[in-house]
Amino acid sequence: MNRRAMTYLRPAPFRTLAAFTALALGLGLAACNAQPGERPPLEGASIGGPFTLMDKAGKTVTWDQFKGRWRLVYFGYTYCPDACPLDMQALMAGFAGFAKAHPDLAAKVQPIFITIDPVRDTPQVVGQWTAAFSPRLLGLTGTPDQVAKAAKAFAVYYKKGEALPGGGYLMDHSRTAFLMDPDGKPIAMLLPVEQGADPREAIAAELAKWVK
Questions:
Q1: Beta strands at 169-173 and 158-163: parallel, antiparallel or unpaired
Q2: Which of 2-6, 141-145, 196-200, 205-209 has the lowest mean pLDDT?
Q3: 3 state SS of 106
Q4: 169, exposed or middle or buried, with CB in 10 Å at 0-12, 13-18, 19+?
Q5: How far is C-alpha 199 from the chain's CA centre?
Q6: pLDDT of residue 32
Q7: C-alpha distances out from residue 98 to 57, 61, 107, 196, 211, Å
Q8: Which pick of 19, 36, 93, 129 has the fewest CB atoms within 10 Å?
Q9: How far is Cα 69 from Cα 40, in angstroms, rounded to an integer?
Q10: Residue 149 in contact with residue 189, Cβ under 8 Å?
């Protein structure tokens, strides 16, 4: 795992999802809308593009199938011992808080997890792993070539690490989550968050700011 990439997000103080949701509502997420004339931070960036992958049932899924929906995209792998589970917990907790405050808007958003370790992350493995975080989270895998094409489209770095003494291996990879608009254009990064901020609160607020 890229240790430098792991420094930006530290475990937030423990709280239940219900407690976080109540806090998010108390903060008034609706008040975090983008200001008139404010441009998305990733506007014009070359991030995102066509891909063909498969879901937990082995069914083909393409990028174009999500046209008309906002998309929250994260690349990682299920055997990740720390960073990916931490990120997904924060992302889906933040999304849950946003969904509680804005159910109609949240219904327009599709959270997507794409593995960068397709050799081990079979459709079944990815499906079971993503289900542990949220039934709304769609897990995708594919052939090594398909995954490489998807990662390249999103400017995501990944590389297989050296074998571990006890067997297996880690994957070195970049860590970020992209918010894409209904046309598939990049809007903002939901991870990393500002140092010192609670990632769950920051993610919920960022979603409330841009999704409309």
A1: antiparallel
A2: 2-6
A3: helix
A4: middle
A5: 12
A6: 61
A7: 28, 26, 10, 20, 10
A8: 36
A9: 17
A10: no
**Torsion angle, alpha carbons of 183, 118, 74, 107, to 10:** 60
Confidence band (pLDDT; 50, 70, 90) for 103? very high
Q: How many residues does the chain have?
A: 212
Q: Is the dihedral of CA 42, 47, 49, 54 positive or negative?
A: negative
CA–CA distance from 169 to each of 24, 30, 70 (Å)? 38, 43, 34
- Cβ(97)–Cβ(200) below 8 Å: yes
Q: Is the model more confident about 182 or about 163?
A: 182
Q: Percent of the chain beyond pLDDT 70?
A: 83
Task: Quickly state the pLDDT bin for 38 (edges 50, 70, 90).
Answer: confident
User: Any idea where the domains of the chain sit in the sequence?
Assistant: 48-161+169-210
pTM of the model: 0.84
Mean pLDDT of 144-173: 95
Topology adopted by domain 48-161+169-210: Glutaredoxin (3.40.30)
156, amino acid identity = V
